[in-house]
């Protein structure tokens, strides 16, 4: 249990290195993209280049995905401060959320299915 916790914390630290690098790079270059997105791109490029191995961040990534819903609770509560916007554009917002959720779920399912089939055939997923 302790070893698992230490592993996840060290992997989270590595993910945060990329986050902070992305924030710094976005600030220095005055990019119109949030630093967190730049950090994700840096991490993705590092994974593709083999600089970072998937095993180095896999458990922390799994934990973050498992607890993802908890990260949205503060945002959902914060939206309640803007009732006038919800009253004005509530239906459009709800429809947009439902449609985008469906698209993300379909794309994720499609991608997972393709990767699963490729892995079963003995192909490489990375």
UniProtKB/TrEMBL annotation:
Keyword Cell membrane: yes
Transmembrane segments: 12-31, 37-56, 63-82, 94-112
GO cellular component: plasma membrane
UniProt key word Membrane: yes
Region forming the signal peptide: none
Top-level division of the source organism's lineage: Bacteria
Key words, A-Z: Cell membrane, Membrane, Transmembrane, Transmembrane helix
PANTHER family membership: HOLIN-LIKE PROTEIN CIDA, HOLIN-LIKE PROTEIN CIDA-RELATED
Designated name of the protein: Holin-like protein
